[in-house]
Amino acid sequence: MGIERSQIFSSNIIVGDFLQKKLEENRNLILTAEPFMNQLYNFVKGSNFFAILTDGTGCILSVIGDEGILSEAFALEMIPGASMDEAHIGTNAMGTAIAEGIPVQVSGKEHYIQAYHRWTCSASPIRNPKGEIIGTLDLTGYSDLVHSHTLGMVVAAANAIERMLEVKSYNDELAIAKNHIETIIDSIPAGILTSDLDGKIKAINKSVTDIFGYDEKEMQQMKIWDLFEGWTHVKDHLIGKHTFIDEDVYVNARKNKLQLNLSAYPIWDGEGTVREIIYVFKEVKKARKLTTRIIGRQAIYTFDKIIGKNDRFIQTIEYAKKIADSKSTILIMGESGTGKEVFAQSIHNYSSRKEESFIAVNCGAIPRNLIESELFGYEEGAFTGARKGGNAGKFEMADGGTIFLDEIGEMPIDMQTNLLRVIEESTVIRVGGSKQIPVNVRIIAATNKDLRQEVEKGNFRKDLYYRLHVLPIYLSPLRERKDDIPLLIEYFMNTLSKRLNKRPVEISTAHMESFIHYHWPGNIRELENLIELIINTEYIPLDIATGNDQKKIPIAPVQENTMTLDQVEHHYILKTLKKFGGNITLSAESLGIGRNTLYRKIEKYNIDCSFMEQRSSTEPSHLHNVVPF
């Protein structure tokens, strides 16, 4: 390497900014090694030894030792910045330890240059947690004073430095992970805290202090039961391995008592014992909106999914789009099965409220004694069986979004007064309460009744009728949209056959003419049910096959006793049940419907399955009063 034995100094010594940069780059190694260098030097202090720390290239970073021998070393420029690798100073303990990757002791004339022959150097490499050499630790003294155990002390000190570097690296990773988790938790718009089973609060996020009004130090000096009522119930629930999700609780905020939504989760140890509890507090309104999005009815239909080319129908769609963002109440009128809820959902999804809740309520399906609490909610203790903490009604759940009141004509007259107040004042009052709760809700109502006639009969309030009739939409019956019937048949045939996992049935021209001439009292819903029946049975009821006007389509011999759609469905379900001996699972699978749907059909047609058990019917495949395709 071109090094002369008479050389005294290292051929590479950095100073000034270059040295400062080198020291900064190795700051962690220097700070970690310093106490161990001091400890190593203290063992030999007063015996003319000095200790050296280098980086992974052999550049001296730090030197400590006895003054006498240190002066000699400095005279040889063994100072911070000097390179002690073999390429610049020849064989020596530090450079050779780096080259060989193992601890080494170089004594007397084993040094290449003559200037070091009076010394014995003992050095050990220092590795980072990845196993890479990042430095060396060296102890140098006069050869006659060096003991064979000197190298062992250096190795022990280097190993201790490595362990400390490993611990610091692990702690740094833990600190980063902790900061990462805390940042994520602090970014969650919900109050999150943990406690042990003695109620001591262990950790909190930023949102908790915002919700409760206490600072972090105050909260950590409190017990969990100081913050909300019913903590023992939550703890017992979780210890008993039960869930505690989305329950309303009263909390003791700094300024007043609040009602919040709480979910609690246990933290288990390795033995399956609950050690701590995580509490997630949300504002009741936000929690309910989230719940509605997850389990509630959501608006899935949009205008581009509505099938139709009829001119009048297209005009209705365009009108609905124009009024979608209006704050005024919309009233959708039309016969059963014309798609009133489809339009309501499409209007919601076309409006600026599309990201908010869509709550659908069938006013005709809710028992009269429950409709008030269902719509407007109730307070705790409002009636026997009332939920602890009370319950929000549909209007509160729809806050910010849309509420769809289907079959509005069925709403009891006394409830109509409450609905009128909500429309006029944009507030609701829960059953058993007196507080007015503001709600920002756009109302879409729907009816298959003539509300004007209902007003004349005294069944519907005139003032409410005019409040609802601000933006009316009338949906044409299917018999007035004959040009849409082939489109709808094609759509239902494709979608239903895929859902039922059956092949589409080809509709002949004659049958298509029959469908166009049929009067469709059930409108689109009836058409969809018919297509499902055709896919499952490949039969069609005669009254549909022959149309509803004077023109008869000669597609099959007309039999005297025709069957209605319900009669055909009844007959086919009964036949299938007999075939499978009353087995619900097999029958439902054969029919291409769910078990629950089949149970509803059995109840609808009052079918007794008990006599079918343990036998299978071999009835003829002939179905009476139907036309095969």
List strands and helices in order, with pairings.
Layout: H1 16-25, H2 27-44, E1 49-55, E2 60-65, H3 67-75, H4 86-89, H5 93-100, E3 104-107, E4 119-127, E5 133-142, H6 150-187, E6 191-196, E7 201-204, H7 206-212, H8 216-220, H9 224-227, H10 231-239, E8 244-252, E9 257-268, E10 274-283, H11 284-295, H12 311-322, E11 330-333, H13 340-350, E12 358-362, H14 371-376, H15 394-397, E13 402-406, H16 413-425, E14 427-429, E15 436-438, E16 442-447, H17 451-457, H18 462-468, E17 471-474, H19 485-500, H20 509-517, H21 523-537, E18 539-541, H22 542-545, H23 565-579, H24 584-591, H25 595-604, E19 626-628
Parallel strand pairs: 11-16, 11-17, 12-13, 13-16
Antiparallel strand pairs: 1-2, 1-5, 3-4, 4-5, 6-7, 6-10, 8-9, 9-10, 14-15, 18-19
Helix pairs in contact: 2-6, 19-21, 23-24, 24-25
Short description:
One of its GO terms (biological process) is regulation of DNA-templated transcription. By secondary structure, this protein is of the alpha+beta class.
In words, what does this structure look like?
By secondary structure, this protein is of the alpha+beta class. The chain folds into four domains: 16-170, 2-Layer Sandwich (Beta-Lactamase); 188-290, Beta-Lactamase (2-Layer Sandwich); 296-476, P-loop containing nucleotide triphosphate hydrolases (Rossmann fold, 3-Layer(aba) Sandwich), CATH 3.40.50; 482-628, no CATH class. It has 25 helices and 19 strands. The strands form five sheets. A five-stranded antiparallel β-sheet has the order 2-1-5-4-3, sandwiched between helices. Strands 7-6-10-9-8 form a five-stranded antiparallel β-sheet. Strands 12-13-16-11-17 form a five-stranded parallel β-sheet. A hairpin with a 6-residue loop joins strand 14 (427-429) and strand 15. Helix 24 packs across helix 25. The longest helix has 38 residues, at 150-187. The protein is elongated and about 120 Å long. The relative contact order is 0.05. Residues 548-562 and 614-629 have low confidence and may be disordered.
